[in-house]
Amino acid sequence: xxxxxxxxxxxxxxxxxxxxxxxxxxxxxxxxxxxxxxxxxxxxxxxxxxxxxxxxxxxxxxxxxxxxxxxxxxxxxxxxxxxxxxxxxxxxxxxxxxxxxxxxxxxxxxxxxxxxxxxxxxxxxxxxxxxxxxxxxxxxxxxxxxxxxxxxxxxxxxxxxxxxxxxxxxxxxxxxxxxxxxxxxxxxxxxxxxxxxxxxxxxxxxxxxxxxxxxxxxxxxxxxxxxxxxxxxxxxxxxxxxxxxxxxxxxxxxxxxxxxxxxxxxxxxxxxxxxxxxxxxxxxxxxxxxxxxxxxxxxxxxxxxxxxxxxxxxxxxxxxxxxxxxxxxxxxxxxxxxxxxxxxxxxxxxxxxxxxxxxxxxxxxxxxxxxxxxxxxxxxxxxxxxxxxxxxxxxxxxxxxxxxxxxxxxxxxxxxxxxxxxxxxxxxx
Length: 429
Prior knowledge:
Blueprint: H1 3-27, E1 36-41, H2 45-55, E2 64-69, H3 72-84, E3 91-95, H4 99-102, H5 116-122, E4 131-132, E5 135-136, E6 139-151, H6 152-157, H7 167-177, E7 179-180, E8 186-188, H8 202-213, E9 218-220, E10 226-228, H9 240-250, H10 268-273, E11 279-283, H11 287-293, E12 299-302, E13 315-324, H12 331-341, H13 344-354, H14 361-364, H15 371-382, E14 383-384, H16 391-406, H17 412-428
Parallel strand pairs: 1-2, 1-3, 13-14
Antiparallel strand pairs: 3-13, 4-5, 6-11, 6-12, 6-13, 7-8, 9-10
């Protein structure tokens, strides 16, 4: 580490120690830091225990940790039920898609315990999703950016030396990479865009395109309220979201020369693994799964393409933080564990255990030697996300937005307008 990094890390560590003391004193907890802390999370028990072992927290006598693995799709109901029964975790994993749903059940970390300036200096920009007017909703723990996987064999066979770096380049690839049989059925595709049901990560891909176009989808106001902006023109001459939706759906339009996808095809992940898709847009966490499904697949990883007109490079990511339950009987202990898991040592353990990029600035600034991780690190710095009011409901809204266009029921402008109304209703409820 450089001298500056050592000084910065030391200063941040001092703030954390002071923060824990202030936090405990202001809460007036009757429990001590050595009281048990129950954690609910989405990584396996083995992975969490490995993180504790790597950090030495498994030997920390000030912590008594019980970890319980939960399936993310079942978490919301289990969490609410547990709290109603007077039980549940002290500390739990939360993603950007659950913040609004559970914010009233979270004890926000006050900025006098961890100043907002120190938070922003310590974590990547996308992690600011956990900041609220009332305090810090969760301590950033994991970032999982959306990246582009590309089939090197298909690109080489078609005479292309490299992957596309700009979206405009994708159009020119389809002439040689997309193949059809005598009945005009797609047998090999360039890009799996245009539908929703059989496109893995369709919601994340659409979110990425809209965010890249310059629309934040939702915006938290200074009073904590939410503005829905998905259909707003903002300061652009053309509304960003309808154009992003148009680009996405054009690839499933049979009348377009770059037609590359339809609803009859397998899931985009399976089509890529079988070697029949030149591109696949997936999360960094999918790398090991793709490798295990087809060890012989000759593929590489690259950042997602950008618009040539964009002022900044951007991708979508899922962020996971450690939130403190408002009903916890050991809030000070939960805070103590959260800051230790998210300091430099803790996040380094996350990186080595989960093979994902770090959410901390001081770690993501380092250049990894692994070729895949180098792309993931860049994705962590580029990553943005948005406050989804409800993950399943938003998927339904986005699916309707896409299928209304592909079925010819509405144009892109009306489809996005409907989505805006549905998001507003979802937040109101």
